[in-house]
Each structure stands twice: as C-alpha cells, then as structure tokens.
Amino acid sequence: MPTNTVSRRAFLKTGTFAGAAAFVPVTGSAVRHVGPVAIASGNGRGCVAEAVRQMQAGADALDAVVAGVNLVEENPDDTSVGYGGLPNAEGVVQLDSAVMHGPTGRAGAVAALEGVMYPSRVALQVLRRTDHVLLVAEGAQAFARMHGFPIENLLTERAREVWVRWRENLSNRDDYLPPHGSEDRDLGRAMRRSYDHWGTIHCSAIDLTGNISSVTTTSGLAFKIPGRVGDSPIIGAGLYCDNDVGAAGSTGRGEANLESLASFLIVERMRAGDSPQDACLFACQRIADNTRLARLQNENGEPAFNVSFYALNKAGVVGGARIRGSGGRMAVADADGTRMVDLAYLYA
C-alpha cells in the first residue's frame, strides 16, 4: 500500500464520500466575511501577495488575481506561462487563459493565442466586451489586437534552445501515438513528465466585499501538437468559481482534468460540505479511478502523471491536493501574510 499524506483508507472513511445527509451546505448567508484571501499554485507566491495588496486597496477580486498572474506571464524565467513559455512542436508559443467572476457568474477565455504576453488580460476583455466565453487562435489574436494589445515574439532565446534540443532528440517521447490498445505501454510521454513541473499558474481570491474570482493562465504543454488546448481555458476544468460557495483551479496533466471537469466537481463537493482539501482529494481520486490505459499507469496501476488542485471556500478556508508525491505546495496570502501550504496527496 502506498504511503500517503492522507491515507486512502482513512480518506474513504471520512465524510468526503459519505451521504449528503452528513453535510452542512456552504452558502453565502451562512459564513462570515473574511477577505482578502488569495491562493495560487506553487509558482504564485508573488502573485498572491500582489493580489492581496490590490484587494486591500479596494480592487475587485477579478482585477486583483489577473494583476497577480501578470507577474508570472511577463517573467521570462518561468517557462510554463506567458512570455518565455516553452513552444509547441513547431516552435510557436501558444497561450491559454480563462477568468471567472463570482458576482456575475460570467467567464471569459482564450486558447491557442499567439503573440500576446498577457492572455489573462485578453480573457478578461472577452468577459467584459463580448457576449462569448471562449475565443481561439487567429480570432483571439484579432480580438486582442482590436483592444490594443501589441503582438510580439514571445519565444525567448532560452525557450528556443530548449525546443531545439527536444527536436534533436525526438523518439517515442512526443504526443503522436501509433495505433495501440488499452494494455500497451511505453507510448507517448505522460510517464516521463516531472511530477513537479508546474505548467500553469492558477489564482483565486476573496476580496473585501466577500466576492470571489479566479484566473488560470498557461503556455500549455511544452512541445504540444499545434492547436492543442488543455484544461486551463475550459470553464469547469482549469478553474471554476461560485460566489456562494468558493473556487478551485488546477495545474498538471490537462487531458486528465478535461475528462473529469474536476474544478467544477471540487466546487460542488464544497457546496455539499467538503472542506477544500477533501474536495480536492475527491477530484484526485476520481481521476485515479478513471485512469484505465496502461500507458498512463505505473507498475502499480496508479496514474503515472500528476494533477494538482487548489481551492478556497466562502469562509476563507483553503486547501489543495495532488495525485502524486509529497512536496507539492500552494501559495496563500491573507491578513496573516504570505506563506506556502503543503498539498495532500493520494500516492507517494
């Protein structure tokens, strides 16, 4: 049996999987106001600090979380988000992002966007200046240009050199798969990804008025098939928020999350009474239970990839969990300052 931060046997005995009668619903009228609070994936310590600073000055949670992730989007040293992000298989940086505004329930997103350093800002404009939710590729870029965003080359020299090394060493480690069956192994690269590769930044927050908003932004899977869209810009997968309940977001293998819509699941589990951590563990278990292809499993039949989740509820309680490995952390900022919080996990 694997060694776990929260053992699977104990987890199964908790209210996480119990009947609905055991739950006390989380509703907007049943909790006290606790803002500002911000959470982010482990690469977002500066992000949450900036988000809380902005909310303390009166900013809406949505503007604050976007300003927070902008710090990562513009950082050339972060190769998983925005400027400096690793490109697709053809050497082109394609960015995905989504935002969700709790008070209005509105969302905006862009996918496969090229040439714009701040995809989260473009997603925000989709929310505020269109009747749509998701714009993609050339249409997303044309919309960004219409709203004054400069079109730039986002491929840094560092990212270009990494891409060239990848192209020079291709074998069976890309995303193109030959015909195969459910029992075939050693296909693709899911089992070769580092468990600690962030790949994305997510940020959710509660502002001074008690409203909740979220953002997720990414350059996506490095060396992906051109046009691939992961979970980050998909509402309910890469993020979800409900102003009466809470918010959740993810990083990691987007395909697994797309097939489970786990961020929506986490918010609904919190609505039923789960703590944020238990709700995130439930989502991890759901993905593990649905991972049935041998090429995605290790020798123990467990998922060989990782997905991490981060959540907060209306009461300001925060928590997160990942499928694999100790050492995962999330960034949190509130009235007590900025800190890193350990993630629970299913498998060592």
Can you walk me through this structure?
The protein has 348 residues and is of the alpha+beta class. It has a single domain, classed as Glutamine Phosphoribosylpyrophosphate, subunit 1, domain 1, CATH 3.60.20. Helices cover 27% and strands 22% of the residues. It has nine helices and 13 strands. It has helices at residues 8-13, 45-56, 61-73, 119-129, 137-146, 157-168, 254-258, 262-272, 276-289, and strands at 37-41, 95-101, 106-113, 134-136, 201-206, 212-218, 239-242, 246-252, 307-313, 318-324, 329-334, 337-342, 344-347. The strands form two sheets. Strands 4-3-2-6-5-1-11-12 form an eight-stranded mixed beta sheet. It has a five-stranded mixed beta sheet with strand order 7-8-9-10-13. Strand 11 (329-334) and strand 12 form a beta hairpin. Mean pLDDT is 87; it is low at 1-32 and 190-198.
| Oligomeric description of these chains | single chain
User: What is the CATH topology classification name?
Assistant: Glutamine Phosphoribosylpyrophosphate, subunit 1, domain 1
CA gyration radius, whole angstroms: 19 Å
Q: Helical amount among residues, as a percent range?
A: 25-40%
Q: Assess the beta-strand content as a share of residues.
A: 15-25%
Alpha carbon gap, first and last residue? 10 Å
What is the H level of CATH, i.e. the homologous superfamily? Answer: (Glycosyl)asparaginase
CATH class: Alpha Beta
Low-pLDDT ranges = 1-32, 190-198
CATH architecture term: 4-Layer Sandwich
Summarize the helix and strand pattern as letters.
Answer: HEHHEEHEHHEEEEHHHEEEEE
What is the spatial order of strands in the main beta sheet? 4-3-2-6-5-1-11-12
Number of helices: 9
